[in-house]
Design brief:
It is built from eleven helices and twelve strands. The protein is α/β, with parallel strands linked by helices. Strands 1, 2, 3, 4, 5, 8, 9, 10, 11 and 12 form a ten-stranded mixed β-sheet that branches. The two termini are 34 Å apart. The structure holds ligand PBG and zinc ion (ZN).
């Protein structure tokens, strides 16, 4: 059909028609809020590169979790910042670790929000790598047991879902086994399946004190140049028993989300990471863009690409915006 028979503008002429034909709709149901947990009481340390985000003690985490729930957000994901670090990251799987305590408390006080826990070692190891380091090399197989212990300790503390972000081979298998063995066969695994070695994680590493002390993460996180490899990773995690497949970061990787949507049957999560958040907030502060509009456009684009859910530092703002504009 050609002009003048076809006129694309016919269905754009008023808000009613536009609503009828909108192909993608963002709702609070799509959002997951990342939170940074620290010890102590009444602690609320600002994170300079992530405006409106803080390292929070458990009392504050409970308040924010309640606020998220009241805005219709179904889940939060917890990252812990421990008081001590050591070569084995032992505070990652301590019964009284920071994430374990926070998960327990949030579930006690706000049972109706899903608590997802990030499973990794980099915040807990003194060298800042996501695994056990032997002679300067991250040892894949020696790391697996530590990750399984970490995931299990989270489930025991009450976490509703665990999310391994380390990119070690085989971790979904060992985590699934460890959970099943202890009666947590109903605890889902959200696997950071295609996690790229990205410069967009900068603000997060400042927030979580998790930058590697030597080298980089290129031997375990993926090369931004690759797409077929993302499919292999996602297929492998699916076969190992993952319940949700994550792509991270989101914005520079919309093609990966789109490809995995076609290739994989599981729900897909996209992580709209710290650097993506920081860029928008910085440009907004400079009055170079309209921050709220760019936020909504960005989240809609991630969903349009095929994500079923979005982990985003915009979760509260976006949920508020949706409430006010619907
Ligand atoms: C740690 C982890 C990182 C993020 C989530 N989990 C950082 C990294 O891999 O260095 C990044 C999240 C963000 O940037 O918002 N494994
Ligand atoms: Zn890590």
């Amino acid at each position: 059909m050609l002009f003048p028979d076809y006129r694309g503008r016919r269905l754009r002429q008023n808000p009613m028609f536009r609503r009828m034909v909108a192909e993608t709709r963002l709702t609070a149901d799509d959002l997951i809020l990342p939170l940074f947990a620290v010890g102590g009481k009444n602690v609320k340390n600002p994170i300079p590169s992530m405006p409106d985000h803080f390292q929070l003690s458990t009392d504050h985490l409970v308040k924010v979790a309640r606020e998220a729930k009241d805005l219709g957000i179904p889940g939060v994901i917890l990252f812990g910042i421990p008081e001590q670090k050591d070569p084995l990251g032992t505070r990652a799987y301590a019964r009284d670790g920071i994430v374990q305590k926070a998960a327990k408390e949030i579930k006690n006080k706000v049972p109706d929000i899903a608590v997802i826990t990030d499973v990794c070692l980099c915040q807990y190891t003194d060298h800042g790598h996501c695994g056990f380091v032997d002679k300067g090399v991250v040892d894949n197989d020696a790391t697996l047991d530590l990750l399984a212990k970490t995931a299990l300790s989270h489930a025991e503390a009450g976490a509703d879902m665990v999310a391994p972000s380390d990119m070690m081979d085989g971790r979904v298998t060992v985590i699934r086994e460890a959970l099943d063995e202890r009666g947590f066969e109903n605890t889902p695994i959200m696997s950071y399946a295609a996690k790229y070695c990205s410069a967009y994680y900068g603000p997060f590493r400042e927030a979580a004190h998790s930058a590697p002390k030597f080298g980089d993460r290129r031997t375990y996180q993926m090369d931004p140049a690759n797409v077929r490899e993302a499919i292999r990773e996602a297929v492998m995690d699916t076969e190992e028993g993952a319940d949700i497949i994550m792509v991270k970061p989101a914005l520079a990787y919309l093609d990966i989300i789109c490809r995995l949507r076609d290739e994989i049957d599981l729900p897909i999560a996209a992580y709209n990471v710290s650097g993506e958040y920081a860029m928008i907030r910085a440009a907004e502060k400079m009055k170079w863009i309209n921050g709220a509009d760019v936020m909504m456009e960005t989240l809609t684009a991630i969903k349009r690409a095929g994500a079923d859910m979005i982990l985003t530092y915009f979760a509260l703002d976006a949920a508020r915006h949706l409430r006010e504009h619907q």
